Amino acid sequence: MAAVQTEYSPFVLDIESASDTDLLATCRELGVTVVCYAPLGRGLLTTTFSSGEYGTDKGDMRPAHLPRFMEENRAANMKLVNQFKELAEKKGCTTAQLSLAWLLKQGEDIIPIPGTKTIKYLEENWGALEVHLTDAEELEIRKFVESAEIAGGRAPDSVTVLIDTKEES
Fold first, then answer.
1. Which residues, in sequence order, are bridge partners of residue 27?
2. pLDDT of 50 over the 90 cut
3. CA 104 to chain centre
4. Where are the domains of the chain?
5. How far apart are CA 91 and CA 133, in angstroms?
6. Cα distance between residue 103 and residue 8, in whole Å
7. How many CB atoms lie within 10 A of CB 119?
């Protein structure tokens, strides 16, 4: 096996946890690359979300189906994203670029695969390669994200129940 694809972003650190799957350590022990889907938190760490513009596209299903994007969780999550945005502004980049740069800083065996709808966002994401984080900046971001409490789950309860049930069997 050459690669494992899993969700990994500054706000989804499950693969790092020994109490969860310890997937990152296992992959590293076996020399397996980690391909990170949803590295921008399904859009949570994008300019669109941090500016409050998400969910305006009629085709955007997130506000209706993903708890983190639902109206009742918006204020709490905007607060967290705005804190992340402050870190990005200090670094002179966007929240998406900071998120991708942070993931890239986690190791050469980490490959984020952000989705994008437009060339503009592709170029923004590509710009993350020019964002170089120092070890101190990486630690600052890590401390922030490890203490962050995001409102709402990553997936609808109906999906979470299926995942939890599968893990118990």
1. none
2. no
3. 12
4. 3-168
5. 9
6. 8
7. 8
Q: What is the pTM of this model?
A: 0.81
Fold of 3-168: TIM Barrel (3.20.20)
Q: Which residues pair with 34 in a beta bridge?
A: 4, 110
Q: With bands split at pLDDT 50, 70 and 90, how would you rate the model's confidence at 21?
A: confident
Distance of CA 4 to CAs 7, 15, 76, 92, Å? 10, 11, 32, 32
Q: Which tokens is 78 given? A: 């905007």
Burial tier of 73 (Cβ tally within 10 Å: 0-12, 13-18, 19+): middle
Q: How far is CA 114 from CA 68, 158, 167, in A?
A: 18, 25, 27
